[in-house]
Design a protein that fits this description.
single chain, 198 residues, alpha+beta, 4-stranded antiparallel sheet, 7 helices, 4 strands
Length: 198
């Protein structure tokens, strides 16, 4: 559909479209011994692969622009939910230390964030282009948190394994956070008990 789209922009008829296929997709498949789609994905970072295709400058520019627009990898958000608590002497300090242990896995390429949903529930997230590495990174962070909190005889539970977030997951998390925030807000009259002894 990329070539059809480019041909449409150039007002090519079916004969010119077939010529465009012959010069690009079919020639690239033959030369690189892999499907044209795979070569097109490679063109995102190596546009010079089109140099031998005998394209006009206009065809080349439109094709590269279209390929970059459609095939550039999209970043995904990966999320896991965990419960972390410590009812011993160390209490919140043990929880903080355990969460910091999870953050040590964070890198510039794979930044990990940990946010409180409501005690003892925390959400661990990362945003990355590499799904598999992102899931592995969150699993490593979860392992670090578990190991550290268990040193203090704390409680640890994975309530949701690492998974790629969808738009509906994002909306659900935002709605859940909003509900918890409302529940935690002070209700009128909570602390304003007046002394009736006058």
């Amino acid at each position: 559909s990329i070539l059809r789209h480019v041909a449409g922009k150039l007002n090519y008829d079916n004969e010119k479209l077939e010529e465009l296929y012959t010069k690009t997709a079919w020639a690239l498949e033959t030369k690189h011994k892999k499907p044209a789609y795979a070569v097109f994905k490679q063109i995102v970072s190596e546009p010079e692969l089109l140099d031998d295709c005998e394209l006009t400058p206009e065809e080349s520019k439109l094709l590269i622009d279209d390929i970059k627009q459609r095939l550039t990898p999209q970043a995904v958000k990966i999320r896991a939910d965990v419960e972390v608590a410590c009812y011993g002497y160390e209490g919140i300090d043990a929880v903080k230390e355990a969460l910091r242990a999870g953050l040590t896995v964070s890198t510039e390429v794979m930044p990990i964030k940990i946010n409180l949903i409501a005690p003892p529930l925390y959400v661990i997230t990362t945003t990355t282009l590499e799904r598999t590495e992102g899931v592995a990174s969150l699993q490593k962070a979860i392992g670090s948190i578990k190991e550290k909190i268990e040193e203090y005889d704390g409680h640890f539970n994975v309530t949701m394994e690492p998974k790629v977030m969808t738009d509906s997951d994002e909306q659900e998390l935002a709605k859940r956070m909003e509900q918890l925030e409302l529940a935690n807000q002070e209700v009128d009259g909570d602390d304003d008990i007046e002394d009736d002894d006058n």
